[in-house]
Design brief:
The chain has 371 residues and is an alpha+beta fold. It has helices at 80-84, 89-93, 122-134, 146-151, 251-258, 276-279, 302-305, 310-313, 364-370, and strands spanning 7-13, 19-26, 34-35, 42-43, 53-54, 69-73, 102-106, 117-118, 172-177, 190-191, 218-219, 225-226, 259-261, 280-288, 294-298, 318-323, 328-332, 349-350.
Amino acid sequence: MDRDSLILWEAIQNTNGDWDEIPVGQQLLLNYCFGHDESSLLLCPITNSILINHCSNRTKDCGKDGPNTEWRWDTEWDRDTKRWLQMTLAEMDKQEGRGLSFEIIATRDILPGEEIFMDYGVSWEEAWEQHIDDWTPAENKRIDSVKQWNDEEGPIKIMSGDLRKRAIHDSITTGCVFWDEFAEDEEGYHEYFEDREDSDEDYEYSYGDYLDHASFWRYGKDGRRVYRPLVLVEDIDHMCPSDDLWHEMNDEAILWYLGEDGTNFTPANSPRRHSFGGTYWPCSVVRQEENGRYIVEVFPNTKVQGQRPLWYEEGFPRFLTNYPRESIRYFPRPNRSDMHLKRAFRHHIDIPDAMFPSQWKDRRETIEKEL
C-alpha cells in the first residue's frame, strides 16, 4: 500500500468559514508494516509473525546474544515473490491479492521458552530513541491501564449511578457477557400482554393516566419473546412504540418493564465462550446492588449481530439485574488508549537496503531535496 493512505487528517474551519484538512499523524498500522525511507511502498504482513519484538546487536536490549532471527525474501515455496520483485510500483498497483512473502529464519539455536526477536533496522531504532528523548507526558492527562484494572479485584470503577445515563471514562469502557436469545424477525408479530396476575403492585408514573400497566413485550409467530416495548396512551387508537416516555418512569418501573435477570450471563455459559469478541457486548454499569451484584445496560454487538437488534433500533434499552462481577471486563475505548495519542510513536520496520529493489525507491529525489 501507499504510505500516504495511513495519514490521519483533521478538518479545521478557517476564518472564511471553509474547512481545511491538515495532517495530524499516522495510523497505528504503520508500526506493523515493512518499508524503506526512500519509498512510498509499505508491505503489511497478514500473519502473526509481525508481533515479533525488536532487538539489535547495536543495543542488545534482549541480552548479550542479540536477536535470534532475521527475515529474507522467500523465493522457494512462494514462486510469486520472485516475479513481484521485478515489478515497478505502477505494475504492482495493478495486481490483486497477495504477491510477496518473507520467511523468518533462526540465526542461532533458540531455547524452549526463549522469546523470538528480530532487528527492525537502524532507521527504526534511531526514530525510537529520538521519540523517547522528545517525549513529555501530556499535562493533566492520565491513561489508565486496562490490564491493571482487569487484574484487580473489587467493585467496578466506572458506574453511571443512573439508569438514564451511561457510564463514561476518558480512555476505558466496559464489556459484559451477553447473548440475545430472543427472535429478531419483524414479520408475524402479534400483540401480547404479559400476564401479571401474580403481582398486585402498581407503579406511579410521571405521565399518570397516560401510561397503563401494559406489557413491554411482543411475541413472534414462533412463540418466542421479542424485546419490543409498547406504551399505551389514553386513546387506545394511538398505541405506539415510544423511545422517550420510559425515561419518565421511576427506577423500579424501568427495571420491571425493561430489565431481566442477568444471573446466568457468565463466561462459562456463553454460547460464544470460545470467541472472545463475541462473548462481550458493550455495556454501561449502572450501580452495585446490595447483594454485591450489578445492574448493567447492554448495547448491540455489531461484530456478532451484523446489524443492530430490534429493541435497540426502536430506541429502548436492555437492562440486566443481579449481574455477576465476573462477567464484566474493561476494554480500551476506540482510539483513546495511549497508543492513539497524537504524539505516539509511528515508524515502519526497515527493509535492509540490500534487499530492497531500486525501482521501488520513488522518494529518493524528495529526500535528497529535504537534506
